[in-house]
């Protein structure tokens, strides 16, 4: 699954190529691309060029209920972004026990994904393909990373955020 805005810097083409490289080896493999954006037509063209229409679903925008149903049904989330903030989509997937594979160089995902613990960070498209293959064929690895991701996501509550914010305010006030 890919979840997010459909814009060039998200590099969703890499996720499509990754799945295209594995589909012959992993029967039944599909990729749901959930989100909307001005790059959707270009992405649809890439899907057609790769002949990937049979296993890539460019779903577009979905409501929260459908998004969470899709997350709950997913095995792995791919985040091939060139740049990314903290990674809200990563945590949404994690809350459903879905590990994520993302590019280390994207930035903020290094804070939301603990490499080898809650997901996998990679450096090249080939590494993304290999990481996805590993998670698809190794049920124990996928379930272990997914469980750790779920546990980590549970730490990020509004209560925890308020406590952290309060601590920062207290430090600023104490510094006078």
UniProtKB/TrEMBL annotation:
<dbReference type="GO" id="GO:0016757">
    <property type="term" value="F:glycosyltransferase activity"/>
</dbReference>
<dbReference type="Pfam" id="PF00534">
    <property type="entry name" value="Glycos_transf_1"/>
</dbReference>
<dbReference type="InterPro" id="IPR050194">
    <property type="entry name" value="Glycosyltransferase_grp1"/>
</dbReference>
<feature type="domain" description="Glycosyl transferase family 1">
    <location>
        <begin position="2"/>
        <end position="151"/>
    </location>
</feature>
<dbReference type="InterPro" id="IPR001296">
    <property type="entry name" value="Glyco_trans_1"/>
</dbReference>
<protein>
    <submittedName>
        <fullName>Unannotated protein</fullName>
    </submittedName>
</protein>
């Amino acid at each position: 699954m890919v979840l997010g805005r459909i814009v060039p810097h998200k590099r969703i083409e890499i996720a499509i190529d990754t799945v295209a490289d594995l589909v012959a080896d992993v029967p039944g493999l599909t990729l749901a691309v959930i989100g909307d954006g001005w790059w959707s037509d270009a992405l649809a063209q890439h899907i057609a060029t790769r002949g990937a229409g049979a296993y890539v679903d460019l779903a577009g925008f979905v409501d929260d209920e459908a998004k969470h149903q899709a997350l709950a049904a997913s095995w792995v989330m791919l985040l091939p972004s060139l740049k990314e903030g903290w990674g809200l989509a990563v945590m949404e997937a994690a809350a459903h026990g879905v590990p994520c594979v993302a590019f280390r160089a994207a930035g903020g995902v290094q804070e939301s994904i603990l490499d080898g613990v809650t997901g996998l960070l990679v450096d090249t498209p080939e590494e993304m393909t290999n990481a996805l293959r590993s998670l698809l064929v190794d049920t124990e690895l996928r379930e272990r990373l997914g469980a750790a991701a779920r546990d980590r996501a549970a730490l990020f509550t509004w209560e925890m955020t308020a406590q952290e914010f309060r601590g920062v305010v207290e430090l600023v006030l104490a510094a006078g």
